[in-house]
Amino acid sequence: MNDQHITIHAPATVANMVCGFDVLGFAVHEPYDVMDIRFSDRPGITIINKDDYCLPTDPEKNVAGAALLAMLEEIKEPLGFELGICKQIKPGSGVGSSAASAAGAVVAANRLLNDRFPKQDLVRFAMNGEKVASGVKHADNIAPCIYGGVTLIRSIHPLDIVPLQAPPLYVTIVHPQIEVRTADARGILKQQVQLKDAIRQWGNIAGLVAGLLKSDYDLIGRSLEDVLIEPVRSILIPGFDTIKQESKEAGALGGGISGSGPSIFMLSKDETTARTVEQQMQQTYQRLGLDHHTYVTTINNEGVKFTS
Amino acid sequence: MNDQHITIHAPATVANMVCGFDVLGFAVHEPYDVMDIRFSDRPGITIINKDDYCLPTDPEKNVAGAALLAMLEEIKEPLGFELGICKQIKPGSGVGSSAASAAGAVVAANRLLNDRFPKQDLVRFAMNGEKVASGVKHADNIAPCIYGGVTLIRSIHPLDIVPLQAPPLYVTIVHPQIEVRTADARGILKQQVQLKDAIRQWGNIAGLVAGLLKSDYDLIGRSLEDVLIEPVRSILIPGFDTIKQESKEAGALGGGISGSGPSIFMLSKDETTARTVEQQMQQTYQRLGLDHHTYVTTINNEGVKFTS
Q: Where in this chain does the record put each GHMP kinase C-terminal domain (chains A, B) (predicted)?
């Protein structure tokens, strides 16, 4: 048994990137969870909470535990891991809190195993954590958390992940302290959509991917339009329309609901704009009397980061 | 009045590029229409047919005429053009015959006017020709004909055209000699689609755009999947499923219905594969006893070409 000890930062991620519902997500530098892992003499997964969120420590009910169990199942050796989790990404905030735990755990464990598994396998393991968190094995937070940058999940079955290089982008995130359950946000979506709206949506995602790969900020901005999901879901988020309009007037390229909310994100070309957007978000929620938290950060091209 | 005389080749184009229904199209080198234009002493548009298709010579009923009339309306000068058209792209074949006439006419006329209008304006004028041909002002044949290469029409209102660089691609086209009216092909589409299918479609178009811009042939191949339009429209085209399956078995990256059919196109990485695909297409239609015509060509990055 080696006594190696790995510490990582597992970053927040923004899924459902506007027109890229269910398929496009990106990682940011802040906030992030801090996790540490070592081999344990006791086979299986031991979870030690180092924060105040009181998340389950039963591995089958813990997103990080479920991800590690999926990994262990494939290893077929009686290994044990002891995992410490200090969450700084608030659960339920819509910026991939569960994905950070699940992705961080398997990336850290894989390092203990001398990087035995390629990234795609790690995504597959970590998706079991998402299943525990929301009932759905989605990958649009997990994949950018593990690969870094902006990530396309072209397909889930079979899993097909395409990292997309992007030009430098500043990200302003506001998390209004209300609860939007992922299951609820999913439940209000219409299962049938107009073909003409779907066409507009795939014109936009094609434009967004082209804009990212060509570093064409104007094209990115023009393509950041969601005619299908946002009009339905944004009603769950007080102040959404005001924040979006004021952010764009302040020079943001665009943005939308982060994940299934309630956080809202906006992309900007430069830090000054991103900070102005932050101030306006703060003013809007002060006016509405809603507790909130903001971040100004950048796209994180590294994903999970090893700190020791 | 200058006596300049412009001759051009206006290429065939493939619209509705698989998952890029209504938004992605590309130009090919063959077939193409030959057109010549000069100023005329008589104001307005004079059309001279130089082929056997007996298309209308009344400019308002002729796709090239309608495109030029839209241009003249914006010029607000009493100009006259004499336009000769020798069509080699069979009308109704599904490879942008009307678009070639409309786009070729305005590109040629614009050269007489010392390139007064930018390409986007030319697309706008030429779309009036598509209106005459099919009742719909679509741009997914016009734009690649004028810009060349693979073209994304992110939006029609406002018009937003994004040229996408692509790696070298061979194109095999088969035109079975049956008639599929654009209006019929449009009529059988469902106006409502399942959200889950739309998500799969926009995952694929995002993958296709990324594959083209990254010159990733495997990703292009994996993304050439249309779960919404092709399953409905392909029933109008005898032999479609066989041709698609055999083409992929022969090594083609993928393909689908060209425009609204009846032509079928397949993309390949190399000429040998493209020629094998052609032979199999020919065998299929011989077996079915259907007259047909095939082309093996490449993506045309130039669009309308000036020959004098």
A: 209-285
Average pLDDT, chain A: 95
Query: Which string of b and e fits A264-294 if b means at least 16 CB within 10 Å?
Result: bbbbbbeeebbbbbbebbeebbeeeeeebeb
> Does CATH number 3.30.230.10 belong to domain A5-165+301-306?
yes
Report the C-alpha gap between A74 and A80 in whole angstroms.
14
Structure token digits, residue B22: 């209504």
Residue A49: its H or E element: strand A44-49
The fourth-level CATH superfamily of domain B170-298 is: GHMP kinase, C-terminal domain (3.30.70.890)
Measure CB to CB from residue A203 to each of B154, B190, B219 and give the nearest one: B154
For chain B, the structural domain boundaries read 5-165+301-306, 170-298
CB A215 within 8 A of CB A164: no
User: Which residues of chain A are within 8 Å of residue B200 when distances are taken between CB atoms?
Assistant: 155
The reply to whether residue B198 touches residue A200, judged by beta carbons under 8 angstroms, is: no
CB A57 within 8 A of CB A47: yes
Listed in order, strand segments (DSSP E) in chain B are 5-14, 24-39, 44-49, 80-86, 150-155, 160-164, 170-176, 192-194, 254-257, 264-268, 292-298, 305-306
CB pairs under 8 A between A and B: 128
Contacts of A204 in chain B (CB under 8 A): 154-155
- The DSSP call for residue A158 is T
Distance, CA of B220 to chain centre: 20
Nearest in space to B97 (alpha carbons), one of B46, B38, B53:
B53
Distance, CA of B256 to CA of B234 (rounded, Å): 9
Q: What integer pLDDT is reported at residue B229 of this predicted model?
A: 96
CA dist., res. B224 & res. B16, Å (int): 11
Tell if the CB–CB gap between A199 and B162 is shorter than 8 Å: no
Check residue B263 and give its pLDDT: 97
CB A166 within 8 A of CB A150: yes
- Residue A6 — pLDDT band, cuts 50, 70, 90? very high
Which residues of A are the active-site residues? 130, 182
**What pLDDT shows up at residue A186?**
80
**In angstroms, rounded to a whole number, what is the distance separating the alpha carbons of residues B244 and B223?**
15
pLDDT tens per residue across span B239-275: 999 999 999 999 999 999 999 999 999 999 999 999 9
Chain B interface with A: residues with Cβ < 8 Å: 19-24, 152-155, 160, 162, 164, 189-196, 198-210, 213-214, 219, 222-223, 228
